[in-house]
Amino acid sequence: MKTEVKSTCCYCGVGCGVLIETEEGRIAGVRGDPEHPANRGRLCTKGATLHLTADPTYRLQYPERRATRGGERQRVSWDAALDEAAERFAATIRAHGPDSVAFYISGQLMTEDYYVFNKLAKGLIGTNNVDTNSRLCMSSAVAGYKQTLGADAPPCSYADILQAGLIFIAGANPAVAHPIVFRYIEDARAANPDLKIIVADPRRSESAEIADLHLPIKPGTDIALFNGMLNILINEGLVDPDYIAAHTTGFEALADIVKNYPPAIAADICGIPTADLLQAARWFAASGASLSLYCQGLNQSAHGTHNNAALIHLHLATGQIGRPGAGPFSLTGQPNAMGGREVGGLANLLSAHRDLGNPAHRAEMARFWGVPFVPARPGKSAVDLFKSLKTGEIKAVWIACTNPAQSLPNQAAVREALQAAEFVVLQEAYGNTDTADYADLLLPASGWGEKHGTVTNSERCISRVRPAVAAPGEARHDWEIVVDFARRLGRKLDHAGVDRLFPYDDAEAIFNEHRETTRGRDLDITGLSYALLEADGPQQWPYPEGASAGKVRLYEDGRFPTADGRARFVAVEHRPTADVPAEEAPISLLSGRMRDHWHGMSRTGTVPRLFNLEDEPLLAMHPCDMRHRNLESGDLVRVTNARGAMTVRVAERPGLQRGRAWMPMHWGSQFMNSPGANALACDAVDPYSMQPELKHAAVQIARVDLPYPLAIVRRCASRSDALVLMQEARSKIAAFPYATIALYGRSSPLVVFRAAAAAAVDDALIAELDRLFGMDTDDGAIVYVDARRSIAKKAIAREGRLLGVRLAGETLAQGWLKQAMAEDELDASLIRLALAPSAKPPVTVAPRNIVCKCADVSDVQIQKALAQGADLAGLQEKLKCGTFCGSCVPDVKRIVAQYGTQEAAAA
Ligand code: SF4
After folding, report:
1. Minimum mean pLDDT among 439-443, 504-508, 901-905: which range?
2. 10, 33, 44, 176: residue to mutate for ligand 1 pocket, most atoms within 8 A of CB
3. Number of H helices, E strands in the chain
4. What ranges in 271-369 are assigned the alpha helix state H?
5. Residues facing 697 on adjacent strands
6. Closest atom of ligand 1 relative to the 47 alpha carbon
7. CA-wise closest residue to 870 among 890, 845, 895
8. Is the CB of residue 385 less than 8 Å from the CB of residue 131?
9. CA–CA dist 233, 235 (Å, integer)
10. Which DSSP state fits 452?
11. Largest CB tally within 10 Å, which of 227, 715, 797, 800?
């Protein structure tokens, strides 16, 4: 019997609602929840394929331990695992004090999970060493809001997008990173032809395609841009003096500073035309309602807090805040970074937006928890935490639901730190992340579709997360693991009140305690309960006791949560980036995201169709930079700086200025023989938010000659088989100076292995790869060998179907072969062409265009279905095209109409 359970998407901070379909105890489908206010039934590609990630192959299902670092993992019982963890943590704390241990957690945890981690560290152990991967993501937005508006509270809602007269997207690419927000931007454009859209981004991103004005500023010049705009607003009398006088402080001091940013100078710093800067400022002031959307481009910087503040200044100076369609709206990266901030799950925060540095706040929380004190000494934030692990100041670390061995900057140092740590616990849903290689103890956690709790999205909206199925094996909920560990640790530390400190039987009890900490605070949710969220659906905060609804928009009355009720202008100046390109590293490597992947791909990297847009890491470069290095698209380059190196394929891409290169941050050691772009990023941090400068790094890029290519494309019977094969084949990545592995395809999944070497790949390695990929057979084999040219090719075909191809020495046909295998389009009579030295497909293999990006449906598939008698409804039923975000429905209808016309003409 089929059932549907309401929950949320576990990827980005848009926080879309989903309906999870289950059948016989397993997740069978997913669709957008039409009643969820964040998405009203829409989903992007990632959300629409969530059900396909519910595969147990890479799941950590049982507690495991390693006797020695790098040794084999052995299954152990939960009791043994948690007793060992408690003993090791207790011994470390007894010998070296509470600050010798640390917790590194995640914006993907539930609010309830976050709350108990925070209480464990700050309330039970007495250390503030609890930080999170949100430090890499949103901490500059937190600090920016607090410095200017007085509280970490995004003042806007998604509804404002439709009411804006100007949308200013700065350091964000919602078309890719927050796709449902981008659908709202598209809706706003369709509804209002006068709407202006400005995108400030060093790269002409996918979001910039919709812009009326793209400002391709030099990396790290955001403050100069915003100060320059403010200079124009002031000089042209476009500020709102009444609003400034009534609701803000500090304007004169800032106005003095921005005198130094006249348009020509500011534009020169930013590397954009002065006219464009003038245009941006005038549109901002004249729109009637300007809405700024911003994210990592501002946050991931050594000046991230001031980047945020400088942008917020534009809103305060023009009074464009606290009214419909206007305000500074930071888009949250992770699904529950907001919830983590709400419970104070960072090294410098306390519950309910309290500050650790405030003695009154510490005393309040100590009273609330019933502990003698909350320690005053600041905890280590992410980058420092790992540095302290390396020096031995921190000896034991507990990592939950995150993968620092890929996501932190300067990976060589991070990996050394993990290696140096005395004891590493990893609490994870997946057992194959890079961090798992360093764990002494691995604790299996429940994942999407299995968890209980609440999350808060970018617009302060709290949603219930509900389980649709049980977690696999012995995996437990994150909060359960923490509470069980806390009780055991408390007993070992002779903490008499530990059971009273951690009395919870379920997630709701934790939520209720967290709720009480918010009483009277800016994010007061004392009017909320699980029952209310159950009955009335997701709700925005604040939602105090007695309220009948949350607040859509903050600061409508012009009062801000500061001591004097006024917002603050902050003295911000442009400063050079932490990692300035120089002779030895002349290119700015920008990192960004792909539409179909999430973070380190531990989940999205298990779904073949999510690689159909790109199944190989590519470094995008400007054509002049390529010519200067004698490079063509498809060549291999070595990207280096003092922190690391990677070999990657280069591609000429429009939209990049000279001196800039771009690469997605998702690719890491699970898919290539390098930890990826973050390995080269510098670990300089913003002094207020402690957020590192992940967004760009100065690098050298040079051609690398590896003239012997190899490609293997292997069809698998099922996705689980493909995942197992991919896992086994990863062991061969290190055998080549360049190697990548990925999935591809739809119903018939493929594993794609690519490599290149300086000399011909020897027969023994080819034989080993053939064995691994099931190509070591004569049954159905077609072989072509040209020993003189070191070419060795083999195809396996059975019953007219190509099952696998190995091309060594010459790989021109790999691209079309892969596509033809994925679409099952290769006619049996043409299989011999699989070994042909041709980059062009035979005429029977039609080039395809993806029509529905959410469901990854091509025009070829639609034509096939129409030929089999499907109509529009039939297409939607069978292929699911146009059933998610809906933006491709006109295209699908057009193909249906064209097909009908052709059929009529032929009749
Ligand atoms: Fe998930 Fe996409 Fe919605 Fe983000 S926009 S929450 S990834 S469905």
Report:
1. 901-905
2. 44
3. 30, 36
4. 274-286, 296-299, 304-318, 337-342, 359-369
5. 589
6. 8
7. 895
8. yes
9. 6
10. -
11. 227
Element holding 782 (H helix, E strand): strand 781-786
Give the closest residue to 533 by CA, choosing from 558, 505, 508, 506.
508
Distance between CA atoms of residues 31 and 8, nearest Å: 10
Tokens of 694: 């992940």
**Whether residue 333 has its Cβ less than 6 Å from ligand 1:** no
Beta strands in 360-415 (DSSP E): 396-400
For atom 2 of ligand 1, the residue with the nearest CA is 44
Interval between CA 407 and ligand 1 midpoint (Å): 20
Is 80 exceeded by the pLDDT of residue 825?
A: no
Beta bridge partners, 86, equal none
pLDDT tens-digit readout, 304-363: 999 999 999 999 999 999 999 999 999 998 899 999 999 998 999 999 999 999 999 999
pTM of the prediction? Answer: 0.94
Ligand 1 mean position, distance from CA 32 (Å): 10
11 touches ligand 1 (CB under 6 Å):
yes
Q: What is the rounded CA–CA span in Å between residue 556 and residue 725?
A: 57
Q: Is the CB of 12 inside a 6 Å radius of any atom of ligand 1?
A: yes
* Residue of 18, 45, 46, 338 best suited for mutating to test ligand 1, as the one with most atoms within 8 Å of CB: 46
Residues β-bridged to residue 781: 796
Report pLDDT for 881.
84
Q: What is the mean pLDDT of the chain?
A: 94
State which of 7, 8, 9, 182 you would mutate to test the pocket of ligand 1, scoring each by most atoms of that ligand within 8 A of its C-beta.
Answer: 9
30 lines ligand 1 (CB under 6 A): no
Tell me what pLDDT residue 847 has: 61
Q: How far apart are CA 812 and CA 60, in angstroms?
A: 39
Determine the Cα–Cα distance for residues 887 and 189; give it in Å rounded to an integer: 13
At residue 787, what is the residue type?
Answer: A
* Per-residue pLDDT at 882: 79
Strand stretches in 337-418, DSSP E:
349-350, 354-355, 396-400
Atom 4 of ligand 1: nearest residue by CA position: 12
Q: Is 181 in contact with 164 (CB distance < 8 Å)?
A: no
The two structure tokens encoding residue 896: 């249906």
To test ligand 1's pocket by mutation, which of 16, 137, 331, 607 has the most ligand atoms within 8 angstroms of CB? Answer: 16
Q: What's the one-letter identity of residue 887? A: S
Q: Report CA(847)–ligand 1 centroid distance (Å).
A: 29
551 touches ligand 1 (CB under 6 Å): no
Q: In angstroms, rounded to a whole number, what is the distance separating the alpha carbons of residues 671 and 761?
A: 20
Q: Which atom of ligand 1 is nearest to the CA of 457?
A: 6
User: What atom of ligand 1 comes closest to residue 48's alpha carbon?
Assistant: 8
Q: Provide the 10 A C-beta neighbour count for residue 466.
A: 16
Atom of ligand 1 nearest to the CA of 39: 3
CA–CA distance from 208 to each of 157, 168, 176, 840 (Å)? 22, 11, 11, 33
What is the distance in A from the centroid of ligand 1 to the CA of 17?
9
Q: Which two tokens stand for residue 591?
A: 């990192």
Confidence of residue 843 (pLDDT cuts 50, 70, 90): low
Gap between the Cα atoms of 20 and 26, Å rounded: 10
Report helix, strand or coil for 187.
helix
Kindly tell me the burial class for residue 262, based on how many C-beta atoms sit within 10 Å of its own C-beta (0-12, 13-18, 19 or more).
Answer: middle
For the residues 153-178, what does the mean pLDDT come to? 97
Bridge partners (DSSP) of residue 752 are 713, 742
DSSP state of 552: S
Burial class (CB in 10 A: 0-12, 13-18, 19+), 212: middle
| 406 CA to centre of ligand 1 in angstroms | 22
Tokens 């403050």 belong to which residue? 223
Distances (CA, A) of 592 to 616, 624, 662: 15, 22, 7
For ligand 1, whether the C-beta of 16 sits within 6 Å is yes
